[in-house]
Design a protein that fits this description.
The mean pLDDT is 94. The protein is an alpha/beta fold and 305 residues long. Strands 6, 7, 8, 9, 10, 11, 12 and 13 form an eight-stranded mixed beta sheet that branches. Strands 1-3-2 form a three-stranded antiparallel beta sheet. Strands 4-5 form a two-stranded antiparallel ribbon. The longest helix has 17 residues, at 109-125. The chain is globular, with a radius of gyration of 20 Å. The N and C termini lie far apart (44 Å). The protein is built from ten helices and 13 strands.
């Protein structure tokens, strides 16, 4: 068992559980406790608070240190470079708050909506032999689906090597075998899959952070590119489950229109629905979103033939 798996095993043995919130909610909760040190494991691995060395038992401190995932926070305190979140009946490692580094591995409310979307749509697709989670991040989507499709080969693909390190540990801790591939989209993924899932970055990010920036089209360029790449690669009967966020301008969902045109041109059916009508409202204060009235969480089901 590698150190990251050992961290998860120790957290699970201690009945650890934490639901990760939006960065804005996280910031507000921490502001209430400014100047405090962590009091328990949820403070350490959920709220990313500084902690005294004695707070962590050896079975957590030692693998965390061995994985180089603990740092000096000053004043005799330490801070975990990782968070641990609960979802899909398992635990997931991802980046500590705030997620400001270029290789940060994000996990939050979108992760929970993504899982709910996948679980709702999978039954209609039937058995699958090869599953690829592109832009897998912590692996939450692929791991959630693999638990429901035990006969499908699982591939986790991401351009972020740190994300893949965490995804590999998360999958192993969940008792799953996964092929982990460093890849931009499906570029380095071999054929043999018949289900692609994705939750791409869908924000226009001034900092250009990989886990957050989705390009132009109000951040939807990457979502459209990945959908078109999947449609080029999927065999007859193959499917893609795409969760993303779409900027609504004057009541119109431009991403839906672009995706529908692309699907029709490639012989794919499309089912598309709003899953949440209003997310990340704070983005509307940014110049890039001055013409946007809301951002909706959306789910698309694409099936060939």
């Amino acid at each position: 068992m590698n150190p990251l798996q050992a961290v998860l095993a120790a957290a699970r043995a201690g009945d650890y559980s934490f639901t990760t919130v939006t960065p804005e909610t996280h910031r507000r909760v921490l502001a209430r406790r400014e100047g405090e040190a962590a009091k328990d494991l949820r403070d350490v691995f959920g709220w990313s608070m500084p902690f005294e060395r004695e707070l962590l038992p050896a079975d957590l401190w030692e693998p965390l240190e061995a994985a180089d995932m603990v740092e000096d926070a000053g004043s005799g305190l330490w801070r975990s470079r990782l968070r641990i979140s609960s979802a899909a009946e398992t635990l997931f490692l991802h980046s500590a708050f705030p997620t400001e580094d270029a290789d940060s591995v994000f996990f939050g409310p979108d992760s929970y909506r993504f899982i709910a979307f996948l679980e709702a749509e999978l039954p209609a697709l039937g058995a699958r032999r090869g599953l690829v989670d592109i832009g897998s991040g912590s692996g939450v989507g692929g791991i959630a689906v693999a638990r429901l499709l035990p006969d499908a080969r699982l591939t986790l693909a991401d351009i972020n090597a740190f994300a893949l390190r965490l995804a590999r540990a998360n999958a192993a801790a969940a008792g799953l075998e996964a092929e982990v591939i460093e890849s931009a989209g499906l570029e380095c993924v071999p054929d043999g899959f018949d289900l692609v899932i994705a939750n791409p970055p869908f924000v226009m990010d001034e900092g250009g952070r990989t886990y957050r920036d989705g390009g132009d089209m109000h951040g939807l360029r990457l979502s459209l590119d990945w959908a078109e790449e999947a449609m080029r690669r999927l065999p007859q009967g193959g499917a893609m489950l795409l969760y993303t966020g779409s900027a609504i301008v004057s009541g119109r969902d431009g991403f839906r229109a672009a995706l529908a045109d692309s699907a029709a041109a490639r012989g794919f059916s499309l089912r598309y629905a709003e899953l949440d009508p209003d997310i990340f409202g704070e983005l509307l204060d940014e110049p890039a979103y001055r013409d946007v009235e809301r951002i909706a969480a959306v789910g698309a089901v694409l099936v060939k033939g």
